UniProtKB/TrEMBL annotation:
<feature type="domain" description="NIF system FeS cluster assembly NifU N-terminal">
    <location>
        <begin position="10"/>
        <end position="130"/>
    </location>
</feature>
<dbReference type="GO" id="GO:0016226">
    <property type="term" value="P:iron-sulfur cluster assembly"/>
</dbReference>
<protein>
    <submittedName>
        <fullName>Iron-sulfur cluster assembly scaffold protein</fullName>
    </submittedName>
</protein>
<dbReference type="InterPro" id="IPR002871">
    <property type="entry name" value="NIF_FeS_clus_asmbl_NifU_N"/>
</dbReference>
<dbReference type="GO" id="GO:0051536">
    <property type="term" value="F:iron-sulfur cluster binding"/>
</dbReference>
<dbReference type="Pfam" id="PF01592">
    <property type="entry name" value="NifU_N"/>
</dbReference>
<dbReference type="GO" id="GO:0005506">
    <property type="term" value="F:iron ion binding"/>
</dbReference>
<comment type="similarity">
    <text>Belongs to the NifU family.</text>
</comment>
């Protein structure tokens, strides 16, 4: 496939996720919640997870953000639902490494699913925080002992 056709495919997937995000909304039975924002551009995410027996049974997000932020959150929800907490934490770390320009092994790239298409964000440093907001929120929600982070927490690199 020619590079321009591949770039167009990536753009289309990102636009699809940003205009029709997966798992957008609220959960009735969340066990972990967090709200974070990116003060440099105004992106805001409220992330809710239902974690049972160490497995992410359901996940939803709401808020507002640019197309990269929304698409990344949508792709993240697809990638982590059904995963163990440890697997999801690993994916969050892998995603952050990828968008900072680090090469991932094939297994980690495959595990990210469509989120791997955001690797090109590394070429645009100003967009890295947009793409990592949801993943940082996920990591924080999974590692917070009480399952609830302080509302309005700021996303920082």
């Amino acid at each position: 496939m020619a590079l321009s056709k591949l770039d167009n495919l990536y753009r289309q997937v990102i636009l699809d996720h940003s205009s029709r995000p997966h798992h957008f909304g609220k959960l009735n039975d969340s066990t972990r919640t967090i709200e974070m924002n990116n003060p440099t551009c105004g992106d805001v995410i409220e992330l809710e997870l239902s974690v049972k027996d160490g497995i992410i049974k359901d996940i939803a997000f709401s808020g507002s953000g640019c197309s990269i932020s929304t698409a990344s959150a949508s792709m993240m929800t697809d990638a982590v639902i059904g995963k163990t907490v440890e697997e999801a934490e690993h994916l969050a770390v892998s995603f952050a490494q990828m968008v900072q320009g680090n090469q991932l092994n094939e297994e980690d790239t495959d595990a990210l699913g469509e989120a791997a298409m955001l690797s090109g964000v590394a070429k645009f440093p100003a967009r890295i925080k947009c793409s990592t907001l949801a993943w940082k929120a996920l990591g924080k929600a999974l590692t917070d002992d009480e399952g609830k982070a302080t509302a309005g927490q700021f996303h920082k690199e």
